[in-house]
C-alpha cells in the first residue's frame, strides 16, 4: 500500500545548475591485444584533461561500452573522486559509438553537449574558444575545438549558404599547423597536403568574426536543438558505415545550423599509444588554475530558414562540390586544394 504523497509531484520542475555536458564513450574490451595495449593510459589522459580544463557547471557522462573489468573499476574510481562525473552508464556488450552516446543525448537537458572519443587530449581554453564561436555565430549548431582544412567537404550546405549570402568566405593562414599535422600522425595516415597545413577555409560574420568551415567527428560541441531532427531508429553500425554523418552531421545541416571549428587548436587526437609530450601537456594542465575558468551564457539558437537550407543543399551538391576548384581560384587559391 502506498502511503503519503510523492514529494516530486509537488516540486515537479527540473532545474539544472549545469550548462554543458561532455559525453565520453569508452570501448576497451581488453588490455592484451596490440590495439588496446595502451588504451587505458590514453583514456586516463583524456579523462583527466577534461576534468582539469572544464568549468564547474560542466557535467561528464561516461559510457562503459563493453569494457574489461580493469577499465570499469578505473571509471568508477574516478566517479568517486570527481564530482563533475555525475553519470556512468554500463553496457556489457559494445553497442556502437552512436547508440552509446544517443542513450545520453536524447535525455540531455544542458543547452550544450560535447561528444568526444575517449582518446582526445583537451587543452586549456577549449571551452572558452568553443563558446566564442557560438557567441559570434548564433547560427552555429556544431563547433569543434580542432580545425580541419578538409572539414568543408562534409555536411556544410547551410554553412555555405551563410557564407555566400550573410557573411564572407575566404582562405586564411592556419594558426596551428602542428595541431593538424599531429592529428594525421595520430591516425597513422596522410590526410593533408602541404597546402592544407598552410591555409584553411574560414567564414566571417558581418562583424568580421571568423571560424573555420566544417570539422571532424572525434570531438565536437552541439546545441541540444540539433538532435531534434536526428534519426529515431537504432544505428546498425558499431563505427563508421556512415553512422556519424547520419546521426551527427546531417541533423545539424538539415536543422539550418552551421558546422564550424575554432581557428586555433585546443584539443589533440592521441590515437592508441601515449607519447611523452602528452604527459607533459597533462602536467601543464594540472597546474592550471581552474578558478580562471568562466561560464558563459550562450545566445539563443538562430537556425537558417527551411528555404535557406534547401538552397544551401542545392548549391553544395550541384555547384560547390563540382566547381569548388574554380571557386577557390576566385578566392585566390592558386594551388590544388
Helix/strand layout:
Layout: E1 20-26, H1 39-53, E2 58-65, H2 69-81, E3 85-91, H3 97-105, E4 112-116, E5 120-122, H4 126-136, E6 140-144, H5 157-165, E7 168-173, H6 177-186, E8 199-204, E9 210-213, E10 219-223, H7 243-254, E11 258-261, E12 267-269, H8 276-286, H9 306-330
Parallel strand pairs: 1-2, 1-4, 2-3, 6-11
Antiparallel strand pairs: 4-10, 5-12, 6-10, 7-8, 8-9, 9-11
Helix pairs in contact: 1-8, 5-9
Short description:
With 337 residues, this protein is an alpha/beta fold. It is 34% helix and 19% strand. Strand 2 (58-65), helix 2 and strand 3 (85-91) form a beta-alpha-beta unit.
Question: Which strands sit side by side, in order, in the main sheet?
Answer: 3-2-1-4-10-6-11-9-8-7
Q: Please, what is the average pLDDT?
A: 90
> Count of DSSP helices?
9
Give Rg in angstroms.
20 Å
Oligomer: single chain
Helix-strand pattern: EHEHEHEEHEHEHEEEHEEHH
- Could you name the CATH class? Alpha Beta
Residue runs with pLDDT of under 50 for 5 or more positions? none
CATH arch. level architecture: Alpha-Beta Complex
Shape: globular
First-last Cα distance: 72 Å
How is the main sheet built?
Answer: 10 strands, mixed
Report on this structure.
The chain is an alpha/beta fold and 337 residues long. It has one domain (17-330): Spore Coat Polysaccharide Biosynthesis Protein SpsA, Chain A (Alpha-Beta Complex), CATH 3.90.550. It is 34% helix and 19% strand. The strands form 2 sheets. The protein has a 10-stranded mixed β-sheet with strand order 3-2-1-4-10-6-11-9-8-7, with helices on both faces. A two-stranded antiparallel sheet has the order 5-12. α1 packs parallel to α8 (276-286) and α5 crosses α9 (306-330). The longest helix is centred in the last third of the chain and has 25 residues, at 306-330. The protein is globular. The mean pLDDT is 90. It comes from Algoriphagus boritolerans DSM 17298 = JCM 18970. Pfam families: Glycos_transf_2. One of its GO terms (molecular function) is transferase activity.
Amino acid at each position: 500500500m502506498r502511503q503519503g504523497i510523492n514529494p516530486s509531484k509537488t516540486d515537479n520542475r527540473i532545474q539544472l545548475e549545469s550548462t554543458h555536458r561532455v559525453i565520453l564513450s569508452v570501448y576497451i574490451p581488453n588490455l592484451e591485444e596490440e590495439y588496446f595495449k595502451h588504451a587505458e593510459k590514453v583514456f586516463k589522459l583524456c579523462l583527466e584533461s577534461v576534468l582539469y580544463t572544464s568549468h564547474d557547471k560542466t557535467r561528464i557522462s561516461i559510457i562503459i561500452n563493453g569494457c574489461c573489468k580493469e577499465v570499469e573499476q578505473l571509471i568508477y574510481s574516478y566517479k568517486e573522486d570527481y564530482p563533475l562525473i555525475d553519470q556512468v552508464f554500463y553496457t556489457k556488450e559494445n553497442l556502437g559509438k552512436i547508440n552509446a552516446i544517443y542513450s545520453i543525448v536524447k535525455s540531455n537537458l544542458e543547452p550544450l553537449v560535447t561528444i568526444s572519443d575517449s582518446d582526445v587530449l583537451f587543452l586549456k581554453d577549449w571551452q572558452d574558444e568553443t563558446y566564442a564561436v557560438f557567441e559570434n555565430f548564433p547560427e552555429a549548431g556544431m563547433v569543434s575545438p580542432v580545425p580541419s582544412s578538409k572539414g568543408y567537404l562534409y555536411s556544410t550546405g547551410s554553412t555555405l549558404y551563410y557564407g555566400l549570402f550573410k557573411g564572407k568566405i575566404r582562405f586564411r593562414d592556419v594558426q596551428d599547423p602542428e595541431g593538424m599535422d599531429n592529428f594525421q600522425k595520430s591516425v597513422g595516415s596522410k590526410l593533408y597536403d602541404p597546402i592544407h597545413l598552410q591555409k584553411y577555409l574560414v567564414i566571417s560574420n558581418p562583424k568580421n568574426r571568423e571560424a573555420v568551415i566544417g570539422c571532424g567527428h572525434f570531438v565536437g560541441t552541439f546545441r541540444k536543438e540539433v538532435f531534434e531532427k536526428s534519426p529515431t531508429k537504432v544505428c546498425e553500425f558499431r563505427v563508421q558505415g556512415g553512422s556519424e554523418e547520419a546521426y551527427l552531421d546531417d541533423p545539424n545541416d538539415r536543422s539550418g545550423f552551421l558546422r564550424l571549428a575554432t581557428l586555433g587548436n585546443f584539443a589533440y587526437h592521441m590515437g592508441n599509444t601515449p607519447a611523452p609530450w602528452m604527459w607533459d601537456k597533462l602536467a601543464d594542465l594540472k597546474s592550471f588554475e581552474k578558478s580562471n575558468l568562466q561560464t558563459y551564457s550562450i545566445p539563443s539558437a538562430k537556425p537558417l530558414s527551411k528555404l535557406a537550407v534547401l538552397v544551401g543543399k542545392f548549391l553544395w551538391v550541384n555547384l560547390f562540390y563540382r566547381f569548388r576548384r574554380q571557386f577557390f581560384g576566385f578566392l585566390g587559391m592558386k594551388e590544388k586544394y
